[in-house]
Amino acid sequence: MIIYIRLLKESFGFALNALRNNKLRTLLSLLGVTVGIFSIIAVLSAVDSLDKKIKKDLSSLDKNTVYLLKFSFGPTNVPQWKREQFPNVKYEEYEYLKRSVNDVDEMAFMYFAGRENIKFEGKTVSSVSVSPTTYEFENIQKLAFKEGRFFNESESNSGSQMIVLGHDVAKNLFDGLNPIGKKVRLYGQRFTVIGVLKKVGAGIFGEEDDTTVYLPVNFLRTLYGDNNESMVPAILIKPTKGVDMDAFKGELKSKLRNLRGLKVGEVDNFFINVLSGFTDILDGLISQMNVIGWIIAGFSLLVGGFGIANIMFVSVKERTNLIGIQKSLGAKNKFILLQFLFEAIVLCVIGGVIGLILVWLITLLLTNALDFEFVLSFWNIVLGTVLAAFIGLLAGIIPAISASKLDPVEAIRSGM
Predict the structure, then answer these.
(1) In whole angstroms, what separates CA 293 from the centre of its chain?
(2) pLDDT tens per residue, range 187-225
(3) What is the pLDDT of residue 309?
(4) Which intervals hold domain ABC3 transporter permease C-terminal (predicted)?
(5) Is residue 137 over pLDDT 70?
(6) 172 and 294 share a domain?
(7) 340 with 388: CB under 8 angstroms?
(8) Are 217 and 178 within one domain?
(9) 212-216 and 162-165: which strand pairing?
(10) What is the C-alpha to C-alpha distance for residues 396 and 400, in angstroms, rounded to an integer?
(11) 402 and 292: one domain?
(12) Does residue 365 surpass a pLDDT of 50?
């Protein structure tokens, strides 16, 4: 054990000597390893950070949450011209399904509406995301309140002119004033503020939650009717926990087909979008990003490996006389082989550590600049170090073998 520690110490010394004596050549050779490790760990860290953020943003929703509407969240075999003819879901269908479908925890009706300007006295907040919905939405989305509340069933059904503000909307409109009970203008109408949500921060789709306002959907139904082309209606369904999703979707599909009078053989003119399917698509994209990162880094690591191999061949040539002396004094082939192998590994690990430090610095800068938490995990640090050592092992094996097989007499003579 002691001899291996001594070997590692000597190899580390030789590696540092190579850096000192041939600074430019060694640094250029290490650049390939540094860029390779930087590329793969940077990509993996970015993907891990994105994955962590997505899971955090979607944690408020049950993965079995269903969005029932005329559009599909993913790829579909239904041609576009046919999808364009699908009718929108109706409020009456929401009421029917809520009464008739089993195993439903909560069911809400909502509009995907356009952005609007909202005003309070002389202040205006532009491009606010408006989410008209029924009272059940609060429990499906698990909204967290800073102050106030969501509208209740009676207020929802009657279409009361009440509104709940996202954190940033309330902050920009009222600037320190208590918003509860104040009147704001939206759609040319006055709404009473009854609640303000806690700050959520940037999500995968931007800061939507903080710049969204919620109002009773029946108010807009009364104002514009049910045929407003600028808004897309949807039925949001949260099944009971542990339900058989295939059976649940089957029942939901059967009830809506019967209500719409679809005959056997006719395609569904609606889509049952389950949130888990959306997350599967995101997981697939994340996996593809990982693969692309590995491919990009692979070329850099290949170049870095050749650079380290070149350094080691030069090192063997420069130290041929020393190798001959060591062997003449009784050093075994294994000792010489491990000495050069350790040196190659140490050089690669140095390059890898530089790459990891660069990734760490960039994650700190981006986290502070973009209000998005980039994470350099412990496992990615371990992966970068192990990968650098493995490249050193591959790059140093042939030079190390050639050094270990040198004839001691010829090696000493070559240095004279």
Answers:
(1) 14
(2) 989 999 999 999 876 554 444 678 899 999 999 998 888
(3) 77
(4) 295-408
(5) yes
(6) no
(7) no
(8) yes
(9) antiparallel
(10) 6
(11) yes
(12) yes
Residues 6+ apart with CB under 8 A from 242: none
Q: What single letter denotes the amino acid at residue 296?
A: I
Spatial CA neighbour of 105 closest among 244, 238, 249: 238
Q: Which residues of 44-61 are buried (b: 16+ CB within 10 A; e: fewer)?
A: bbbbbbbbebbeebbeeb
Using the 3D structure, point to which of 269, 301, 316 is the last residue of a domain. Answer: 269
Q: CB–CB of 390/384 below 8 Å?
A: no
Same domain, 102 and 236: yes
Number of domains present in the structure of the chain:
2
Q: Do 15 and 105 belong to one domain? A: no
In a domain, 36, yes or no: yes
Same-domain pairing of 155 and 249 = yes
Amino acid sitting at position 109: F
CB 150 within 8 A of CB 135: yes
Structural domain for 118, as ranges = 87-269
**CA dist 100 → 105, 234, 258 (Å):** 13, 18, 12
In a domain, 276, yes or no: no
Which amino acid belongs to residue 164? Answer: V
Contact between residue 102 and residue 251 where contact means Cβ atoms under 8 Å apart: yes
Q: What is the spatial distance between Cα 354 and Cα 185, in angstroms, rounded to a whole number?
A: 56
Is 180 found in the same domain as 115?
yes
What type of residue sits at position 157? N
CB 308 within 8 A of CB 100: no
**Do 25 and 165 lie in a common domain?**
no
